[in-house]
Write a structure and sequence with these properties.
The complex is a heterodimer. Chain A is mainly alpha-helical. In chain A, 70% of the residues lie in helices and 3% in strands. Chain A has a single domain (13-122), classed as Up-down Bundle (3 helical TM bundles of succinate and fumarate reductases). Chain A has five helices and two strands, in the order H-H-H-H-E-E-H. Chain A has a two-stranded antiparallel ribbon. In chain A, a hairpin with a 2-residue loop joins strand 1 (91-92) and strand 2. Chain B is α/β, with parallel strands linked by helices. Chain B folds into two domains: 4-178, Ubiquitin-like (UB roll) (Roll), CATH 3.10.20; 181-309, Fumarate Reductase Iron-sulfur Protein, Chain B, domain 2 (Orthogonal Bundle). In chain B, the strands form two sheets. Chain B has a six-stranded mixed β-sheet with strand order 1-3-2-6-4-5. A two-stranded antiparallel ribbon of chain B has the order 7-8. The chains are: A mainly alpha, B alpha/beta. Chain A binds chain B through residues 1, 3-7, 9-10, 13-14, 16-17, 19-20, 23, 27, 83, 86-89, 94, and chain B through 86, 88-89, 91, 93-94, 144-145, 168, 171-173, 179, 212, 234, 237-238, 278-282, 285, 292, 294-295, 298-299, 301-302.
């Protein structure tokens, strides 16, 4: 029994299976979620201290980074909300709510909140 | 799978090994009339001597000629099976060995392995028992994916080849046989049985359940302990301390059972248990019984979080 062979750790495990690769990509998009928070704090700091947030946000590299961040955070949010039914079992009168209803509710709430925020941010003073 | 007879003839193989070695000289005919479960560990170890004489060290051998088999009279098409071989004490690491077996439309990969065992190389070791997806013994990596070999048919793979390896994440005892002690320890740890408290009722006592109460846990009770989910789980493969999908799913099965009075919170609410899961979801994809261990784990995360916020609440 002691002669059992123990395979070495596979450092490229996430390349062995497409689903592993997609999973790791999803996890890596968390970095852009963190960046979005940092960017928001920088902009808020500029507004509160009388600075010009547009001066920072308008720089080409910030715009480029934010375009990538938007795509990454959207991917992160969509995949996260789509996984929610796995953790949430909702029963109505014994009937288990199907996954698409929970996902639909999540996405609808997301769009509604985004629209409300966009309204306040983008409206002309 | 915990039963000794589910580990295909460990002792039986030991006895048959001697017989095989004595009866089978080069070019002789050994007629096999029915599959015998001689895919044993110890037996194979005794056969290793014969294998060592026939096979060069570290070579990849190609076996194409069956000594005799009735199948050859009905088909001329073959498919190549690339099978992991590991002989403890002889091999420093596993190697692949190719075998050509008859390509039959109604053959599963397990049939191919049994053909090799019976006709080409009796030293090949692997586990199997029921051949109908119930015992969970014959799980292996087939073309990189954890599968029950009894339910994986040649027709999926065209002309082949098919690569058959031991389940990833477990130490290899020999060829396709992996060490399952760690899994069994984890299984015992979560107490996968009904825990009752208070007065012991007569054995004739019924514990009636409504259909809704049955439905709450039924899905998770379908687990056959085949360990495919462990092999598919990168968290377990990278960190063997992780409790793992099947053990958590079975714990959840009893947590959701209205007859159970136990509380597995302390064994599940840990970094090495539900919180170690990163929700890759492969465990659910490979489960041959549609248990959905990923769901069991995520649901218990919600339960554990609620109990941490509301410590007076129970499951």
């Amino acid at each position: 029994m002691t002669t059992a062979y123990r395979p070495p750790r596979d450092h490229a495990w996430f390349l062995r299976n497409r689903n592993y690769t997609v999973f790791v990509a999803r996890e890596l998009t968390s970095v852009f979620v963190a960046w979005a928070i940092v960017f928001l704090m920088i902009v808020i700091d500029a507004v509160l201290n009388g600075g010009d947030p547009a001066a920072f946000a308008g720089q080409p590299w910030v715009i480029a980074l934010n375009v990538v961040a938007l795509a990454a955070t959207t991917f992160h949010a969509v995949t996260f909300l789509n996984l929610a039914p796995t953790a949430t079992v909702i029963r109505l009168d014994g009937y288990r709510l199907p996954a698409w209803m929970i996902q639909g509710g999540n996405h609808s709430a997301w769009l509604l909140i985004s629209a409300v925020i966009a309204y306040f941010v983008l409206r002309t003073p | 799978m915990t039963e000794p007879d589910a580990v295909s003839g460990v002792d039986g193989a030991a006895k048959q090994a001697g017989r095989g070695a004595n009866e089978e000289g080069e070019g002789t005919i050994r007629r096999v009339t029915e599959p015998d479960a001689v895919s044993g560990v110890d037996g194979a170890a005794k056969q290793a001597g014969r294998g060592a004489n026939e096979e060069g060290e570290g070579t990849i051998r190609r076996v194409t000629e069956a000594k005799h088999h009735e199948v050859r009279q009905t088909t001329t098409r073959t498919i190549t099976l690339e099978v992991t071989r590991y002989r403890p004490g002889q091999d420093s690491a596993p190697v692949l060995e190719s075998f050509d077996v008859p390509l039959m439309d109604d053959w599963a990969v397990l049939d191919g392995l049994n053909y090799i065992k019976d006709q080409l190389d009796g030293t090949l070791s692997f586990r199997w028992s029921c051949r109908m997806g119930i015992c969970g013994s014959c799980g292996m990596n087939v073309n990189g994916e954890p599968r029950l070999t009894c339910g994986t048919f040649f027709t999926e793979f065209g002309d082949g080849p098919i690569r058959i390896e031991p389940l990833k994440g477990f130490p290899i005892i020999r060829d396709l046989v992996v060490e399952v002690d760690d899994f069994l320890d984890k299984l015992r740890h979560v107490k996968p049985w009904l825990i009752r408290e208070g007065e012991e009722l007569p054995l004739t006592t019924e514990h009636a359940q409504t259909p809704a109460q049955l439905e709450a846990y039924k899905q998770y009770s379908m687990c056959i302990n085949c360990m495919l989910c462990y092999s598919a789980c990168p968290v377990y493969v990278l960190d063997p301390d992780f409790l793992g999908p099947a053990a958590i799913a079975l714990a959840q099965r009893y947590e959701l059972d209205s007859r159970d009075m136990g509380d597995r919170f302390d064994m599940l609410n840990l970094d090495e248990a539900v919180w170690g899961c990163t929700f890759v979801g492969e465990c659910t994809k490979v489960c041959p019984k549609h248990v959905d261990p990923a769901e069991a784990i995520q649901r218990y995360k919600v339960t554990a979080a609620m109990r941490s916020i509301l410590p007076w609440s129970r499951r």
